[in-house]
Give the backbone structure.
Amino acid sequence: MNIAVLGTGMVGNTIGSALIRLGHTVKMGSRTKANEKALAWVAANGPAASEGTFADAASFGDIIFICTKGDGTLDALRAAGADNLHGKILIDISNPLDFSKGMPPSLFVCNTDSLGEQIQREFPDAKVVKTLNIVNCEVMVNAGKSSATDRGTMFVSGNDADAKKLVVKTFLTPWGWDDVIDLGDITTARGTEMLLPIWVRTWGATGNGHFAFKVVR
């Protein structure tokens, strides 16, 4: 499958490389073609990897992973172009974190709205699925090597049921997420985005970002 990854940071790099290991062909998008980080990622990942602008990547991908910083997400998608997003699944991993006052960050949208909803409103013909935003990027693509009891719970939010099922089957399950809860429509992304403040504080308290939340029934 041809997949676009928007964003050249740690999350985009990790997701893009994991997708290639699953056998997909991936184009990493950034503001400008020949971005230094994107070129380094391509060099490290071989012929299944390529890079270009946000629009290049979005045009290429049948599915698009949004791995940008939250405050740049909408601008990146606008640069990608509505026509290139039309009818496609947008897997939104970004978070509305505001670092303007330092650490720990606050949320620039919460309670009555979410970044996932903002994306869906601006690009109504796309199928936005919010997931993977509640764990460190290395945990995203490796939910646990030992037993199921060591693995966390992952959530999905989105308006399109078939899109959510495809995301679970094609990506979450191969990455080890065998406990997935469908929270409902895209408004439920408010809940998962609002987990980030406690995620950040847990990381600070333990000094370890390699953890996940688990729903114990």
Remarks:
- The mean pLDDT is 95.
- Residues 3 and 26 are 5 Å apart (CA to CA).
